Amino acid sequence: MRPLTVFAIFSAAVWAGDTDTFLLRNVDVYAVVNASIKDGAILVVDGKIAEIGSKIVPSKGLRIIDGKGLRAYPGMIDSGTELGLAEVSDVRATVDTAELGVFMPQLRALVAVNAESEHFPVARANGITSVLTFPSSNGNARPGGERQIISGQAALIHMDGWTWEELAVNRSAALHLIFPSLPANQASGYAEAKRVYDRELQQIDDFFDQARRYRIAKVGGAPGFKTDLKMEAMLPVLEGKLPVAISAAREQAIRDAIQFAGRQQVRMVLLHPREWGKTAPELKARNIPVILGPTLDLPLNEDDAYDSSFTLPAEAFRAGLKIAFGTFDNEFVRNLPYNAATAVAYGLPYEEALKAVTINAAEIWGVRDQIGSIEKGKLADLMLTTGDPLETQTEVRMLFIKGKQVDLTNRHTRLYQKYLNRP
Amino acid sequence: MKRLLSIAALCLAARLGAQTILIRNATVLTVSKGSLKGSVLVRDGKIAEVGEQIQAPAGTDVIDARGGFVMPGIIDCHTHIAVDGNVNESSVSVSSMVNIKDVIDPEDINIYRAVAGGVTTANVLHGSSNAVGGQTVVVKLRWGRSAGEMIFAGATPGLKFALGENPKRSGSPVGNAAARYPATRMGIEDTIRDAFIEAKAYKAEWDAYNAAVSNGEHRMPPRKDLKLESLKEVLEGKRYVHAHSYRADEILMLLRVADEYGFKIRTLQHALEGYKVAKEIAAHGAGVSTFSDWWSYKVEAFDAIPFNAAILQNKGVLVSLHSDDAELMRHLNTEAAKVMKYGGLSETDALAMITLNPAKQLGIDNRVGSIEPGKDADLVIYDKHPLSNYAKVQKVLIDGTIYFDRDTEVNAQPLRAAEKQKLLDKEKTPK
Predict the structure, then answer these.
(1) A190 and A283 part of one domain
(2) B209 at A interface, C-beta within 8 A
């Protein structure tokens, strides 16, 4: 019986046509923001959701897709990846995540995204329809390079398209700032580590102050004004149009990052915190959204509770924070929903976990009106599943990006088929 | 402080007392004989009875599983936790004289974390920097006991081999390190063959000596060679070979070398391209211990597919899922669920890959790996089905002793946090 199921996955992946107008019916609609509809229908016109209802009468000749036995969810969003920028993490020639230079706001992840990366079809086979791709999402410097502070601009991209231009949902979704860290154990002694830390904090403020002066000179038409790409890249940040995604793991760095964002009056998104300490109320008070790293992670410190990574999302929820999830490892983007599920096991309400991989991410990255839920007027980024998408055993049977049905085969399914048939 | 002490006392009591335990109100996933709603009776560290209705004898400690699930303790066929310091003796290409057993660190916090993830037994391996690596040891994760008490008595010891990029990399040194042979997959084959030529000669010397002694002759014994001793044990089938491998070519190479020199590969570790040579692996009789879905982190992992375990199993290979990672080790149950998603294996197949199959691979399936009367009472109690991402480990027993109890743990967390804060405050107070 089982091999038949497998066959069904592959046959469903065959192109059902290149049209982006169709009626999906006999499907349970899990819209995320509104109530679910049992045995409902979704009308997609020109790649956008035109109507959702319990019964929609198709116009003559309209392509009909039968979703019998399946559930429709919005496609999932991974808020922390390097997809398209790195192929084989161990081979430098295939890795374009971290440039040289400490303050590099002008670098744009989008232009280095390889639309043909094998990672895209692998991730989308499990229902991921868009991701944030960051220059140096983990803050790792290029081998031999200095540790970066501003690594560039992250892009929000779709998981299907011929070029990076076609992939782009939000060409510049955030400026990535890797906050200096004060490690728990300093080989050089605390005093020296603190001195370096304070100096780097000062450098960040200096850089932002410099950008502010540049802006004044530019707006005021100062004599001898010269265009500077780094400074130009800072303008949308200073004008509040572009958020600063700040990577900070430990309590002290998080606290200092919050103060920095307040001082410089920039919109902050906190990236990949590993502990809250006493920072959660402050994050809440300033409406700073949080991108959580993998729930399936070891505790940060040796003496932390064994489940401290598992309970981190629930603690954020209880503090009233807006959260989304990122995997922060290209290899595991497809496992994004399982991190959300583990958070549920350890106290995060299920509805919040689902939002954290869909609508919350869309909201945080400024595309609430386009993706993240099944709502009229939004792009038809849809996944059709056999059940709860946060459970491993659930299969994704069909996937649509901007209303276009996407191939669910990938490097892995192709090799599987090939060697299944080895005599 | 007093409360902390009483908790410690409670833990100790749980360990020392209770010769008979009844786990009731559970779905029992036996792995070897299906599942049933009922109870498991534990006596003197062994499983005494499994059934729908078991009357608790007087004086029995009763654990109410609250409608949850009981499964055999998880067995991880590949880990490097609990090793004191570096796992690699990388100065030589053949390091079969060193033994991980000598450097077990019983205080590694990852032991407790793994137990909290349902793991009760683990194969602790030497690293992968040498074609022929160090000796390996099977442990039970008896957290709180000494290194010696963690050793799984009676388990067949192993020897690590490594193929491909890792042992090769040692030949392409970084910085000032000296180059070391081998630097290619060709050189790795040569290194292993060379070692076994030496080992066979060594074995022949000892065999001749032993034969002479049993004939009543008095001879000088040959000189003991610790490097060759473990290889001799491999030739005699007294020590298992666990071979780190990725690509199909190197897997095939090792199987042929083993055939040539007359020994067996017990398990291929990782074997991410094992699916390409599944029938050759099955014919040799090697098991495979692999990741559920790791790929793309290096070139030799670029053809890795999550269907690997399913293809291998369907072609007759004994497959287990391992962690090789302190984090992954904590959720091998949900890793197992992936073989259902990728390749359509059954629930029992999935559970066997983290229990009974690794037990067979390590030659300890007479003791652990399934819930059967007579086997060690190594049991995990979950609140939900262990193949669900929503399941949490509630209790873990090893030899009938509770080594993890989520209720006790959660209750102790605020006390520990307060104790830590007190120490920090004391540290900050000027002297």
Answers:
(1) yes
(2) no
